[in-house]
Amino acid sequence: MEWAMVVGRKGKRRAGTGNASLPDKEPVGGAVGEAVGGPVGGKKPAQGAATTLSQKIRKAPRTAAVTLTCLCEGGYSKHMADCRNAIVLSELGIEKHPSIRTTATGVLNIEISGPECGIKADALANKMAEVLAGREGVRVTRPVMTADIRVSGFERSITQEVRNALALKGGVCPTKVEIGPIKRIPNGLCMVVAKCPLVAANAITKENRITIGWGPAKLEFLAKKPLRCYRCQEMGHTIATCKSKNDRTGACYRCGETGHQANGCEAPFKCAVCAGKGLPSNHRVGSKPCPSGKKGKGKTPPSNKKEGKIPP
Predict the structure, then answer these.
(1) Bridge-partner residues for 192, per DSSP?
(2) Alpha carbon of 168 to those of 58, 83, 210, 211, 217: distances in Å?
(3) pLDDT per residue over 42-85, tens digit each?
(4) 63-141 in CATH: which number?
(5) Between β-strands 190-197 and 178-179, what pairing exists: parallel, antiparallel or unpaired?
(6) Which residues form the CCHC-type domain (predicted)?
(7) How far, in Å, CA of 287 to CA of 283, rounded?
């Protein structure tokens, strides 16, 4: 006699929707993932894996600039007139008219766009420097957008090799890399902040490690520093447009006293801005606990339009 197994309703339902509709063996790679345009194997990438690189990269400018600084009053018009009379832009390959404006620091900015804008800006800066050579208080520069990179985890004996290692990885001349003071971190190794052109910084931080000497060092792309006035130490404007009555020029960013720099200061924290306003001041000026470092704080107040005041 053969015995038959009685299957209940739940068992029948599971048997009807089981693996009967699936193939015996799934091909390597997973056709399901490929059919919907997903990755091989139908697996989703780990969250945040694709954003690690993009968070470190800042968009490089598509234009190049030449700046004219004139320390004497009312001198911009004369110097620019001499440059326009002596320089023909088309001879330098500049067909599109440049954009001219005054920056937040009060200098004249000549912005060139289009292909090979950097080469054209270099040529224009050289020509302007020739025309304005020997004039007191007049300076022509070719500013380049820079970025800060923190390099940490290297030992003391290879501090001189940091500049060359960063320049080699970023594809720039070592003179374009500025190295700050070397500091010791709690684990006994060293840390330094380097400043270099933005394009080079993006290339350097594509990987978060760099080999210096015998071992690797950690790379960190630092956030862009907010606009700060070196006269009143508040945020949102520069000394050229500062209207504050408080002159804190030369005051230490750590303790608020004068006569030294914040790099070597070991005094207790005291924010000069918050102390002047009667607020808690046991922090560094512009740091996260500082109200003056918050977005929108410390900006030059707008003129009162109701009173009909016209800005100077």
Answers:
(1) 151
(2) 20, 37, 11, 11, 15
(3) 444 444 443 344 445 777 778 899 999 988 765 788 889 999 99
(4) 3.30.70.1130
(5) antiparallel
(6) 252-265
(7) 7
